[in-house]
Write a structure and sequence with these properties.
heterodimer; A: mainly alpha; MetI-like fold; 11 helices; elongated; B: alpha/beta; Rossmann fold; eight-stranded mixed β-sheet; six-stranded mixed β-sheet; 21 helices; 22 strands
Chain lengths: ~290, ~600
């Protein structure tokens, strides 16, 4: 909507200023959310690529005496085996972030495509797909993930597949809902009248207009993926030691907390939380941006 | 009688925005007197709604109202909120655009009307209920005892709007503000509603401010006209003077466009050939509803469009006219009947064969924005059919797009625009260009003008007329707007409740309508002539109530329930489409036998 310009009359009414401030505050807040999210996600992705290379010590072999508190030599201290906590914290994204991003992207692509088909061609197939994803979503995610990993074997590829399997129903549901509203719009009918086949309409017209929810979901799914990977490793169903992984680090050092060795679990804990918050913030900021534009 | 009810001085409504404040209504001075209906017109975005709400000292958040509003000697803008609330509803009634959204879905109509009454008048619940029944009866709702128990979702748009007007009138206000109360209603319902409002104003001396975009409504019902442009009042004149001699630029433009249309002759009869291009035979389409009931959208429709001619398919919403269009395009498959295109039976083609064939039959839909892919540029949209049906090179396609843009009167710089960056009129031109791109033999135009603002609508009609003559287009024009059909189409078919009730050359049908439904439809058209007002005419053929649902169709004539001429024979005997003159068909035995009493006939 374009608003014709008129000479601004300022400060005549308290309501007016209040509204102005509100609007500004909201914008600033949104931008801050976006910037914060983007910075955290940026760092996470950077560390996933170069974390191991810039780490001061090798994260997988003992480099000093065990249980040293944070110092100038060992910034985040060392753990009970003498591994450098800082090197391990910044090397962990290589596993955590890569795994979560791969799973999110795979499930995003798979879920969007299945959702498109299930929404566009309604019928027995669509109903079957939706019931299956209902069942999948009804299980507690964590338990199901553990079962899947246990059945398929504990390695990175299987972890990615397990996560993909878990997150695909979310994308199916989101895309299908959007497709159901899009397919009723007149441009779909116009495309059919122009001589497009159903499949062409679905892919050329409906799909690009139904992507937004999936794109928003993608970032938050990465966050969840990191949390789930860390969680699985924490209970011993994820990554094997001595690979640097946040959940694993917390699991190994949790017993030491009572002995006052707080640094070995605190830093990876902060790293997990920050990363998850970062991806969620980015997703949230994008969502609001899309909604207001 | 002519007591002054409300007067404003320098009424201003401003909305703060991020870029500074926006003045929607700018220093308006106006007066409203008792028993007077005043029309407020102006382009969309000119501030009509803001002004209407402003009169009640209301503005949509975060707007604010300033200036002065003198209502029966009281200054509204300095009045405390409690006093204002007492005045709103009791002394000033408001009817807004969307009737169903203005009603509370959790309360039945009677309770809602009663509450307004009890909020302002000291009455018991039972008294309020009786009052509500009386009011619903007054606005022409059949069976009010039953209707007051209805919830808003059980009412049609027309009925909801009438329930709202009874609510607004329940405390007998001195002023009624109605913001486009009939937009979205069918013509016969619109006429019923406005007639009631006019009568009430006459009887009770209520002053009415009627916000509208329709000059026909102004000419027929208003005593005085206000024109708003960019928030400023640019015209304030008695209706007759306004139509005879408008002073400001906007009014002149609108009136001259309207004038051109009034003078436009009925589409010429000679044009076109006698070779059938599209022939529908016994088309039938039903829909199964979830509760197992069957809805007949189209029953036994047969019609022919000749090469180079245009046929108008008219009827109210729910008559099945859009379904006919979609059956021709095979966006829906007919249950029974054939569609002949020259010598080919379209219904016999496989889906795949027909897909190729689509380049010959194209369509323009009602809502231009919705029928364009929001992510595609104009160029991409227009060249899509070329991609599908031709083997043109990139350069050839670009050339063809330029040609088409020129044909529909768009400049070349819209090529890269997205639909959201275009006006509704431009969007519809893009849709038309897309439909024309493969040089189709036949077009289905499904209400292509009804979602457009008045000026764009007139321009669109002129464009269609021009294209029909230049390209020799044949088309079926689906519409509820009779005056457009008269201008554009050589033949007309009138549909009511899934059937064609009358068909013939436009000039004949419009000059001598036979079927009672056609008569009522023509009678509801509001012409832009303040000297020939509908309220001054007698309406012998006016229809009662509204179009019934197409489930469980009656045994006899489908119109019998609403028809003022109905007899027992009408209710018993199914009506057939019969020939009265070689090219004129009517589905009414009384009319065929020539015993239909002379209703008012509009030429």
């Amino acid at each position: 909507m374009t608003i014709p310009q008129s000479p601004p009359v300022k400060g005549e009414h308290p309501l007016e200023n209040l509204a102005d401030k509100k609007i500004k505050a909201r914008r600033w807040y949104h931008d801050k959310l976006l910037v914060t999210g983007a910075i955290i996600v940026g760092i996470a992705l950077f560390l996933a690529a170069f974390g191991e290379a810039i780490a001061p010590y090798d994260p997988t072999v003992p480099v000093g005496p065990p249980s040293v508190p944070p110092s100038t030599t060992y910034w985040f201290g060392t753990d009970t085996s003498g591994l450098d906590v800082f090197s391990r914290v910044i090397s962990a994204p290589r596993i955590d972030v890569t795994l979560a991003v791969s799973a999110a992207v795979l499930s995003g692509i798979l879920g969007t495509f299945i959702g498109l088909m299930a929404g566009f061609y309604r019928g027995v197939f669509s109903g079957f797909i939706m019931r299956v994803s209902d069942v999948l979503q009804a299980f507690p995610v964590f338990i199901l993930a553990m079962v899947l990993v246990a059945l398929s074997g504990r390695n990175l590829t299987n972890l990615i597949f397990a996560l993909t399997f878990l997150y695909t129903p979310i994308f199916i549901r989101l895309t299908r809902a959007e497709v159901l509203t899009q397919r009723e719009r007149a441009y779909v009918e116009a495309a059919r009248a122009a001589g497009n086949s159903d499949l062409k309409i679905a892919i050329k017209h409906v799909l690009p207009n139904s992507l937004t929810p999936s794109l928003i979901q993608l970032s938050v799914t990465v966050g969840f993926g990191i949390l789930l990977t860390a969680g699985l490793s924490f209970v011993g169903a994820g990554v094997r030691p001595p690979n640097p992984e946040w959940g694993l680090m917390i699991a190994n050092s949790a017993p030491q907390l009572v002995l006052g060795e707080w640094w070995t679990s605190l830093f990876p804990g902060i790293a997990v939380s920050l990363t998850v918050v970062g991806f969620a913030a980015l997703s949230n900021a994008i969502e609001r941006r899309v909604a207001t534009s | 009688m002519n007591e002054r009810i409300l007067a404003t001085k320098g009424l201003t409504v401003t909305y703060p925005t991020v870029q500074g404040s926006f003045t929607a209504v700018n220093g308006v001075n106006l007066e409203l007197n008792s028993g007077e209906i005043v029309g407020l017109i102006g382009e969309s975005g000119s501030g009509k709604t803001s002004l209407a709400l402003g009169l009640l000292a209301l503005a949509r958040y975060p707007g604010r109202v300033s200036g002065s509003i003198d209502f029966l000697g009281q200054e509204l803008l300095t009045l405390p909120e409690e006093k204002l609330r007492e005045i709103r509803g009791r002394s000033i009634g408001l009817i807004t655009q969307k009737p169903r959204q203005s009603l509370n879905p959790f309360q039945n109509v009677g309770t809602q009307i009663g509450r307004v009454y009890r909020a302002h008048v000291d009455a018991s619940k039972a008294q309020a209920q009786d009052h509500a029944i009386e009011l619903l009866e007054n606005v022409g709702i059949n069976d009010p005892q039953r209707r007051i128990k209805a919830y808003p979702h059980e009412l049609s748009g027309g009925m909801a709007q009438r329930a709202l007007i009874s609510m607004a009138l329940s405390a007998q206000p001195q002023l009624l503000v109605a913001d486009e109360p009939t937009s979205g209603l069918d013509v016969t319902i619109q006429a019923q509603f406005l007639d009631r409002m006019w009568q009430r104003a006459e009887e009770t001396g209520t002053a009415v401010l009627l916000v509208t975009q329709d000059l026909g409504i102004v000419a027929n019902y208003c005593d005085r006209v206000l024109v708003l442009e960019n928030g400023k009042l640019v015209e304030d004149a008695p209706t007759r003077e306004f139509f005879a001699n408008p002073t400001d630029a906007y009014s002149k433009k609108v009136l001259s466009l309207a004038g051109e249309r009034a003078q436009a002759e009925t589409a010429s009869q000679e044009a076109g050939s006698q070779t059938p291009l599209i022939r529908l035979e016994g088309l039938r389409k039903t829909f199964k509803l979830d509760d197992g009931k069957v809805l007949s959208a189209v029953s036994d429709v047969s019609l022919t469009v000749m090469q180079g001619r245009s046929l108008g398919l008219v009827g109210e919403s729910g008559s099945g006219k859009t379904t006919v269009g979609r059956l021709i395009l095979r966006l829906l498959e007919a249950d029974e009947g054939d569609i002949w295109f020259r010598d080919t039976d379209l219904t016999a083609m496989s889906t795949r064969e027909f897909r190729e064939f689509r380049s010959k039959i194209q369509v323009v839909f009602q809502d231009p924005f919705d029928s364009l892919n929001p992510r595609w540029s104009v160029e991409k949209a227009i060249s899509e059919p070329l991609d599908l049906h031709t083997k043109m090179s990139k350069a050839e396609k670009a050339q063809r797009v330029s040609e088409l843009l020129d044909q529909v009167g768009l400049s070349a710089d819209v090529r890269g625009s997205r639909p959201s960056g275009l006006s509704a009129g431009q969007q519809q031109r893009v849709c038309l260009a897309r439909a024309l791109s493969t040089e189709p033999d036949f077009l289905v135009l499904d209400e292509p003008t009804s979602a457009l603002p008045p000026v764009a609508r007139v321009e669109m009609i002129a464009l269609l007329k021009d294209l029909r003559e230049r390209l020799g287009l044949s088309f079926i024009f689906i519409s509820h707007d009779l005056s457009t059909v008269r201008e554009l189409c050589q033949d007309v078919a009138v549909m009511y409740l899934s059937q064609i009730v009358e068909m013939g050359p436009t000039s004949k049908v419009f000059a001598h309508p036979e079927h009672p439904y056609t008569r009522a439809l023509l009678d509801s058209v509001l012409f832009h002539d303040p000297l020939d007002r509908r309220v001054d005419r007698e309406h012998l053929g006016a229809l009662e109530g509204e179009i019934p649902s197409p489930i469980d169709l009656p045994k006899g004539c489908y119109l019998a329930g609403r028809c003022p001429f109905a007899e027992d024979r009408c209710r018993e005997e199914p009506q057939l489409l019969q020939i009265t003159e070689p090219d004129h068909l009517v589905r009414c035995w009384k009319s065929v036998e020539g015993i239909l009493s002379g209703a008012s006939v509009v030429g």
